[in-house]
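RETRY 2/3 - previous attempt timed out on the joint model. Re-submitting the same 1138-residue input unchanged.
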Amino acid sequence: MLVSLNEIKKLVQIPADITTDELVKLIGSRLVEVEGTIDWSERYENIFVVKVISAEDIEGTHLHLCQIDAGKSEPVQVVCGAPNVHAGMFAVWIAPGAIVPSTWDDEHFKITMRPLRGYDSYGMLAGPDELGFDTEHSKIAEIDPKLNVAPGTPLKEVFDLDDVILDIENKSLTHRPDTFGLIGFAREVAGILGIKFEEPEIFSSELDAKLKSLEKSSNDFSIEIADSELCARYTAAIFETKDALEAEKYLTADAIFLAKAGMRAISKIVDATNIVMLMTGQPLHAFDYDKFVAVGGGKNPKIGVRLAEDKETLKLLDGKTIDLNHDDIIITSNNIPVALAGAMGGESTEIDASTHRVILESATFSLYNERKTQMAHGIFSEAITRFTKGQPAVGTRPALAYCIEKLHGEVSSYEDDAPGFNTKPEKITLSLDDINSLLGSEYSASVVKSTLENVGFTVDGEFTITAPLWRTDIHIKEDIIEEVGRLNGYDNITPTLPLKPMIGAERNQLFDLKREIRGVLSDKLNANEVLTYSFVSKALQEKAGEDVEDSYEIVNSISPELQVFRQSITPSLLEKVHDNLKAGFSDFTLYEMNQTSQKSLGLENILTPEGADSHGTPAIENRLALVTTGDFYQAMAYFKNLVEALHIKHLFISYDHAGDNNVIKDVKGFQRPAYLEDSRYVAVFIRTEDNMQVVPLGYIGEIKRSVAKKFKLEDTVSVFEISLDSLLRANRLDKISLNFSKFPSTTRDVTIETEKPYYDIECAIKGILEETPDLVYSLEPVSVYKAETNLKKANLSFRLTFANTQKTMTSSEISDIMSKVESIK
Amino acid sequence: MLEELKKELKALSAEYAKIKTLPPEERKSFGVEMNKKKQAILKKIEEAEAASESDNLEPLDLSAPAAPNSPIPTFKKGSKHPLMTELDRVVDIYQSMGFAVLEPRQLDDEFHMFDSLNFHKGHPARDGYDTFRTKEGFIPPAHTSTMQNRALVKYKENLEKGLPIAVVVPGRVFRNEDVDATHEHTFYQCEGIYVSKDATMGNLLGIFKHFFSTYYGQDLRIKTQPGYFPFTEPSFELLIEKPKSLGGKGDGWLELLGCGMIHPNVLKAAGINPDEYKGFAWGGGIDRLAMMKYGLTDVRHFESGNLKFLEEF
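RETRY 2/3 succeeded.
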């Protein structure tokens, strides 16, 4: 919304010592977010009203050679192409050196003297478009000779152009329909300056009184509102007009008023309704009365307000026929749709050159329905913007009276149906302490009283507060407290810190675990943390072999790339692996911790209060996925180092061959990702801290060759994806055992030729060492070797270091152990 | 030099032999004197030897990445995501102030996104959030306020014990908008919630001022700007003066949070009596803090997964 400061100044006496800058700052800090200011003060420099002395055709062109009186001793020569240029007219001249106002915000086009068809042209005669008032390009602006402007008078002395226009962020006024008119906005400005707002005359005009007296006195028409929820109040008047459609010939103050609000002059009646809307916030709509009556069957005209029925259609003013739906409020003539209420009129009752009687509507409609209509039909006008804020019912008749007065219309009849207009004002009782204890302020009772009275509240005692009828947003104590705090400036409240008992903040275990993992993976193991989108494409899930049907699908996604909520993180990371390989990186490891979900996991009800309209939200899994450009063992090494650093004990790994009792082969309820290579993955499990149950943690493996191909990955890529929720439950033993021996230790390398898996041999060696009393040892793998001639057997080399904690070991004791180890097969 | 010192040492030993010729009462002081000289020479010898060792070193080009014929030292660059680092830092400060941490759920519902936050059904204010929706009507949260009701429910018993509810909600949120250098559909916010018997708006201003003064390591001025959120009353936006570390010279302002006193209906929705307890809540973006800190101009880096970007952190 654009708001002219000059218009505000016409409604409020701004103290002389407040500069424009200060005023804008105050508005920004106490009323509304000001997105920007458009300064017109220099925009119309060197632009003058001139009189055209002569305008002669330049042969063979559409151009005219003009001599103009610019108030100088000599006439000025200008070449002008507009068809409406003629001798004797008053026009607007942009002098050489001036900037064309419409280009002020972008290219800043400077007018110079330039030759045109052999004639020097000094400056230009401007059209409303170049002046930035309109998009009309076919003619130059003409000034009414009756204004008696002396040629050479600066344009900004004729019209109110030395102005600053505020660009207001509408969102911050969503709850304040009353401020969507200049009067309401100005009332707030008075309030923040601590000035009592003088309500302008228009709300108590004679015509308003006349309308009141006409009500129900004629039977030119009646009003029928189907539901007071849809339309709290509908007022309408019929008046005669001859030139409703005629466009204003001259550049007028009204056109400039409209331009400042980002609108343009169209015709007398449209301009009048727009100006009234901009002043009061109340949109109006005009119907051709005779057409309206004809559409409805010719007699007993009745204006109806009801919801549309599905299958009803309406041809709008813009020529489009729309399918109405059951949320649209429509205006009917004897039940036949003639307008989409609040949004756009219908073609069948359009004002045209033959119109001589007009029905002018001033009504309020349900903001909920208006919003649905706006969305369903894509209509975003100044009027519907106001209706979606919920215009107060109190404003309809004064706006109607004001508009008819502007049009000099002779009213013949008037009706007012207000089934939902609550004329009993909202009364709120609260104490000074209520105010000061919520704000942390020390306002006196008299400050509270004057603050509220300045903007139209009535204050009795300490305090019974009556809200004016246009303040439909005031219902509870806090609404009043907000007014007091805001109008006096929140910035005047002293910041203080609350006092609370010295109890430490509760830790969030998952948040802390993620932080810990980040420390291990990034700082210790030099992996790179990434973040990728929570939404992925169906194509990505299909590539990874996931069941797309099990994904939560976004119905209003931005693109197919972001259509489903992801079931796992690995596929997103594989894409990033590809991107980085392509960018020239090699040997890297990416990881991400984030949320995943699947429909088959069902819903969860987390901390939802009883009676809430919430039936559970999708179960969420917190996961860690790590992808590395290497084989299985590399992913495994990352995993093992991670769990070791986290002091996770009791880890079980499903090497599918092993005879160990701890190994679980059947992984029920924890589906193996389809993107893992069948023979190159393991499942891992942990024992829980609370009940010592064994629960699945996740999978480690190589990406299946066929899947890798789909991701355009040529070399082996390995991954682990684990559940952080499970990891959180893992039995973690922070206690470490540092069993040093003060006696000399022995280090021996041993190679065992075997057909068995590494794990079995490792267990066997450990078994031998552990059965020896008082022995401390370490067992490190050195190499795994297979001769090409015999792939069945492997040579597994270990480095074994051990010592006795009680004594120096004798060489026979050492060789005894070594011979046992060496005999393992 | 070294040779001369050694000769000197020899001469000294020869002179020391004279000790036998001296009368006994002089011998002690002579011995002490001689020993002093000896030590001085030994020290010089040591220094000279050390110097000659260093002199024997090959000259090195210290601007080179490695010694000749040696491998160039390299390190794999691990990195934490800058948004996570920032989030951690923000949460750290709040935790030190006594705030518990709750993370949002990335698929939530209408109740937590709107209903429980005093958005009337069908109210146009819901449009301002450009929410995504799933077929089932679930909503990826468009603000971290989806956790307000859960935070209030979870810690309601604090109030009965005379303790405040103090929670922050750091996490990922989503808005249905096209991505460009300054807009992302996926970004991070941190919400704060405080409820007690005597919470005031002054407290909200105090916490905000304290938090950002700590965060930027500088006492910062703050100011407000009116705003509208259905779930707070009064509602406003908070700004801080541009800190020195971001090139602030005491004139510019940064709009960082939307906030206000928690609307009585929001407290009621969690079963808290608004006549007895008051509270305030605030929320702000994390991406912007990180962008300003690192001088980033394109928000798209964050979700790019580009190692060139990541390795900077």
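DSSP finds nine helices and seven strands in chain B. Closing ticket.
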